Amino acid sequence: MVIKISLSEIQQRELINSKNLEYERYYKTVTLTLGIKYHLDSTIYDCNFISAEPRLKLIDEENEINPDFILQYDDNKKGILGEIKTTIPINEDYVLNNEFKQIEKYCKKVTGWNTITKNVESHDVLCFIYLTDSDRLVNLFKKFLSEDKVNIICNVCISEFSTVTSLKIGEGDVLLLKHKYGTLGCKTLTEKLMENIKIRIDELQEKYEVCKFTRKEPPIEYMMDHLWMQIFPVYAEREKSKEQDITVGINELLETIHTFYVSWTGLTDEHSQVRETWIKKSLEKFIEIELAEEIEDKPGHYKIFYGKQIPHNFRKYLIEKCSSHELEKIGRKTRKISKEQTTLIETNS
User: Could you tell me the pLDDT band of residue 215, with boundaries at 50, 70 and 90?
Assistant: First the structure.
């Protein structure tokens, strides 16, 4: 039996896979950042978690850099810039000019640390890479160093992270951090990584249940999923309309989210990482996939079709719906361009 698959079906599968990957990347970055914070906060270290995605500046260039997290050790005299890589592209030139040139830039002196002077005596770079690409990243790093294609002027440590199921009864999934290459000035952290750091996911989620976002804008489906599954139920409960439509306003949504998702960064006074623009984009996307409509006589307010029958796996439904809609838009645009070109040819003829 021959199963025929249309081009549109292949495109949709690819788009769905891409969206799921983006969703997972963001989730893994949040989880790992929280895991590092949890481990350092709950263990005796001369190393402290300072902030997630801080805004630092290169001293000599005045350019801003945004590592995924920063740590400080040796009584805050020294620091660590942390970067998380969930995947590494196949193209070696791309990896060199993007991933490793970024590490090279991170080796330069930066200001904006959590000290009185905003500076530290020296700093290291700690790069976490998901297990599927960790060996390849280390091999490429060694290769580019031997070919003098990158200029590394500080300690660089590459470590692997993954989620594994613990064999111990009652432990469930564990976030596993493993040393792969290099050392840090903080010997204790280097030694712990060499021994493998294990962090229980259930304890992590229990302590940081309301930490789901960093400063980096999430994939729109990630934001929509959390709105539908965690924020909209608050409105449904309040309006006693779990099976009916609910009304939400952007300003009120932002206040609710700032209460629900607390800030856990450290260097700033920001109340939450979630931005108003993220919410507005999500609501507009809900309209596009026919799960909401804007209320004409109330600017900034939307009716959410919360009573609509939705499959149990909302994330799967959402990503498939958004993918179909995006492909339809591309198809309409392509047909429009094709029609215009045909008309132009006929006119010229």
Answer: confident
Residue 241 has pLDDT above 50, yes or no: yes
Per-residue pLDDT tens for 106-142?
999 999 999 999 999 999 999 999 999 999 999 999 9
What are the structure tokens assigned to 291, written together?
């799960």
Answer yes or no: is pLDDT of 3 > 80.
no
Q: Is the separation of the CB atoms in 222 and 23 below 8 Å?
A: yes
- At 61 the pLDDT is 81
Rounded to 5 degrees, what angle do the CA atoms 68, 158, 167 make?
95
Q: How far is the C-alpha of 134 from the C-alpha of 116, rounded, in Å?
A: 36
Using a 10 angstrom Cβ sphere, with 0-12 exposed, 13-18 middle and 19 or more buried, the burial of residue 9 is exposed
Residue identified by tokens 């962090």 is: 199
Distance CA 237, CA 318 (A): 22
Give the span between the Cα atoms of 328 and 333, in whole angstroms: 9
Could you state, in order of their start, the residue ranges of all structural domains in the chain?
27-207, 220-323
For 265-313, the pLDDT digits (tens) are: 554 555 557 889 999 999 999 999 999 999 988 989 999 998 888 888 9
Radius of gyration of the chain (CA): 24
Exposed e or buried b per residue across 204-236, where buried means at least 16 C-beta atoms within 10 angstroms of its C-beta:
beeebeebbbbbebbbbbbbbbbbbeebbebbb
**Distance from C-alpha of 83 to C-alpha of 183, rounded to nearest angstrom:** 15
